[in-house]
Specification:
416 residues; alpha/beta; Aspartate Aminotransferase, domain 1; Aspartate Aminotransferase, domain 2; 2 domains; globular; binds 4'-deoxy-4'-aminopyridoxal-5'-phosphate
Length: 416
């Protein structure tokens, strides 16, 4: 008789206490602090905080220009950060990464640089789920060249309705700009279909990755997009820096958006020629310390066990969605299931304004956000003015979710 197969070792659990210890705010604020506003900004990790402090207090100099050693060291640290960010994004080369002040700046570069190539009547296809920073720059830049904005509708769950894509993508479509993950519904976009559609008409696919990158490294090559934007402050680094990845062949062709020092080859009063990418898109002194912090965050995050973190975040999302479903008068919006969904949930409490919900929750140490979340077209589509949002990050635990649910029970008891 053959021996019974040895039982598989139980998968090791996530060391949540160890993970939380890497985020200084939890020790600083102590027990009873339940931070569920991660979609607005994540808490800074120790690696990023230490890198920022080290640069600003021990190694500070401007980059790209000095010849003394300190300036050279600063430039090297800045370029190392670019490479760490590139690795987190799965970019082929560090020079495909433009350092920006965040997603908004990145999407403004994308819109203004790409629209400079458009003709009147060309079309830019967005979706109704976009954050205002992936709508307004296209309206501003598009208006200058007479481009037309069109929008992908949403289905009943708030996902992009891609069944009608054929009718929306035509030979006039030059840009498709969509979110990788909605900051209101958590719905993750099926970029494969959009990439295919863009390819079929020679359009460029721009992706707003602000809400996707805090849930693990991405692979821009596999995503088949052309530009990818995100903010460092949502990726557990400091405020002030983010990135725009631009596929190299495209970056070489694009004109700059902002002009100034450090982005030129030669300037005369009559005209200027521009540096190669990424410097062409980095006018002026970049956010050096925040970029170095972002590189440190990317390098630290890249070493984590994301399969385990994903399971942990999904279990918390499940706990949150199930709990919300049991509270009378609380209606979650967005997809009902856990598939293709980031761990964030917006909801309505019947008869109670989101700001009142947030204030009562805050009295219990629970940080959530109420409002339109810079996504008015999405709220219009759902027939809502505003909602309350709870967003989960890798360091959250069941106590955070339970504190929110208990707080909501009280909201309903007292205000609804
Ligand atoms: N896009 C999405 C999906 C977002 O959630 C946010 C931030 N709420 C932004 C863009 C804008 O990011 P930032 O304010 O850091 O530029």
């Amino acid at each position: 008789m053959s021996a019974a197969p040895a039982p598989k070792p139980a998968p090791e659990r996530l060391d949540l206490a160890g993970l939380r210890a890497e985020f200084p705010i939890f020790a600083a604020r102590g027990a009873g602090f339940h931070y569920l506003d991660n979609a607005a900004t994540g808490q800074i990790c120790r690696a990023a905080a230490e890198a920022l402090l080290a640069f600003e207090t021990r190694a500070r100099a401007n980059v790209k220009r000095g010849v003394y050693r300190l300036a050279d060291e600063a430039t090297q640290a800045f370029e190392r950060a670019r490479a760490e960010i590139a690795a987190y994004l799965g970019a082929r080369e560090a020079r495909e990464v433009v350092i920006t002040s965040g997603t908004t700046h990145a999407l403004n570069i994308a819109a203004h640089s790409l629209c400079a190539r458009l003709r009147p009547g060309d079309e830019i296809l967005l979706s109704r789920a976009e954050h205002h920073s992936n709508i307004v720059p296209w309206q501003l830049a598009g208006a200058r060249v007479g481009a037309v904005i069109r929008a992908i509708p949403l289905d009943d769950e708030g996902r992009l309705d891609l069944d009608r894509l054929d009718a929306l993508v035509t030979r006039r479509t030059k840009v498709i700009a969509v979110t990788h993950c909605s900051n209101v519904t958590g719905a993750v976009t099926d970029l494969g279909k959009l990439g295919e559609a863009a390819r079929s008409v020679g359009a460029v696919l721009v992706v707003d990755g602000a809400q996707r990158v805090p849930h693990g490294p991405v692979d821009v090559q596999a995503l088949d997009c052309d530009l990818y934007a995100f903010s460092g402050h949502k990726l557990f680094a400091s405020t002030g820096a983010g990135a725009l990845w631009i596929r190299r062949e495209l970056a070489e062709e694009l004109p700059p958006f902002l002009g100034g020092g450090e982005m030129i080859r030669r300037v005369t009063i009559e005209g200027s020629t521009f540096a190669a990418p990424p410097h062409r898109f980095e006018a002026g002194t970049p956010p050096i310390g925040p970029a170095i912090a972002l590189g440190a965050a990317c390098a630290w995050l890249a070493g984590l066990d994301w399969a385990r973190i994903h399971a942990h975040e999904t279990a918390l999302l499940d706990r949150l969605l199930s709990g919300l479903g049991t509270i009378r008068g609380v209606r979650p919006i967005g997809p009902a299931g856990l598939q293709a969904r980031a761990p964030l949930v917006s909801f309505v409490v019947d008869g109670v304004h989101p700001h009142d919900v947030c204030q009562l929750l805050d009295a219990r140490g629970v940080c959530t956000r109420g409002g339109h979340h810079c996504a008015q077209p999405l709220h219009d589509t759902l027939g809502l003015e505003a909602s309350t949002r709870a967003s989960i990050a890798l360091y959250n635990d069941a106590a955070d979710v339970d504190a929110l649910l208990e707080g909501l029970e009280e909201v309903v008891r007292r205000l609804a």
